[in-house]
Amino acid sequence: MTEILLFHHALGQTPGFMEFADRWRAAGHTVHTPDLYDGTTFGSVDEGVAHARSIGFDEIARRGTAAAEGLSADLVYAGFSLGAMSAQSLTQTRPGARGALIMEGAAPTATFDSPWPTGTPVQFHAMADDDWADVPVMQQLVQEIDTAELFLYPGSGHLFADRSSKDYDEQAAALLLTRTLEFLGRLD
Question: What is the pLDDT of residues 15-28, one digit of tens each?
Fold first, then answer.
């Protein structure tokens, strides 16, 4: 099975985030879920982003990179929202990435001073009208990366796969889980 390094969103390691990771584990995958917030969680994206700003996005990135140390290079990097940045950065800058699952956020490849690694598959997932996810950037990345897939779900909820979030959407979350498990299955 696949080994995954999964980064949490701006709310931290909420019960819904951990439940999603457990669903990948139940399918037989090894899932590492580093806590970039040292146990703190938040009730809204605005609060979580304010906390991330107080820590500093460079520090969040450093913590994400540190979480990969000691792990195999043959990883799938995955992240929700804020965590998507660490997942994308490591995929682009740490040699050996097996694939990436970027959910609810993305950045232009130039952000990380390294091109997307040739042949490395990636899926992007977001709700079509989610202002936080930066869907136009995802659409541009799909044009740029020949191994990329983009899945847009109807709606505007940001953390739609997290059962503990006010944005939770059961149907979209179930479809996201199915699509990501299929993706992971292709990498075995």
Answer: 999 999 999 999 99
| Each residue's pLDDT tens digit, 62-121 | 999 999 999 999 999 999 999 999 999 999 999 999 999 999 999 999 999 999 999 999
With contact defined as beta carbons under 8 Å apart, do 186 and 171 qualify? no
**Amino acid at residue number 179:** R
Indicate whether this model's pTM tops 0.90: yes
Find where tokens 């951990």 sit: 18
Q: How far, CA to CA in Å, does 159 sit from each of 30, 64, 111, 121?
A: 23, 20, 23, 23
Instruction: Return the structure tokens found at 143.
Output: 């044009």
Question: Dihedral through CA 86, CA 88, CA 89, CA 91, nearest 10?
Answer: 120
43: which DSSP letter? S
H-state helical runs in the chain: 15-26, 45-55, 57-68, 82-93, 135-144, 170-187
